Amino acid sequence: MTDTQIESPVSEPGASDFVQLLKPRVMSLVVFTALVGMIVAPAHLPPVTAFTAILFIALGAGASGALNMWWDADIDAVMKRTARRPIPAGKVQPGEALGFGLALSVASVLMLGLATNLLAAGLLAFTIFFYVVVYSMWLKRSTPQNIVIGGAAGAFPPMIGWVAATGSVSVEAWLMFALIFMWTPPHFWALALFMNADYDAARVPMLTVTHGKKVTRRHIIAYTLLLVPVSLALGFTPIGGMVYLVTSALLNAGFVLGAVMILRRDEEMAQADKYKVEKKVFTFSLAYLFLHFGALLVEASLRAFA
Description:
Layout: H1 15-21, H2 24-40, H3 47-71, H4 73-78, H5 94-115, H6 118-142, H7 146-150, H8 152-155, H9 157-166, H10 171-194, H11 196-201, H12 207-210, H13 213-233, H14 242-264, H15 267-272, H16 276-304
């Protein structure tokens, strides 16, 4: 965080303000993918242990969100999309967010280790470190590759869920990681196309800011095409199957079509319809990821009742 102080009216923080620090929308994706990773694993935890593990994985994700908001308070105050977050809005003081995030980090890692195994706890600790230190403190403000490399932080949850159940890492866990890792750049670059003014104002070197939107559109189609074989590969592992393959094929066709539409548009066309296509592709990309992991759940259910 820079030395610039965030000038905001001070008010007493409420429970909802601390919940916002956890980034509940991001947490929902973390919880879902971690849960899928745990359920599709060949070993199964007792229900109480599984619930406990997911709870502490969620708290670890929330800790990352709180520490990210503490560090990025100066950026958040400038960007319209984030200006109402608890710290720039003056609802939570930076020191409170820092203490909250650190306490949750330590508690979540320790408790996950006690509930499951040390490897799962170590992966959770590394994920928190990667998101806060490697991505937030270093990559985000220094390189247009921020979201490419930093995307690893969001890709670890299904692997953590798998390791919590099995105590080891496998090809299936790595492919679930790779699916999210390759999905992250086109997902966020679609957002950056219509939120570029925010990143520019905050001096965040997003690809749209450093290389322009034309280059970003080419990167979106390139990474989307690279995503296709990665996502389909899961269908040929023991946790995949025909339901997953059909679902993945349809979703990939939709994502590639959207990326092609984005590629064919110039800035004049995008501004004329207020980035309608880019916004639709961004929304579709969210469904793309949830439905891929949902299809893995369906495959696990079919195997359980076979």
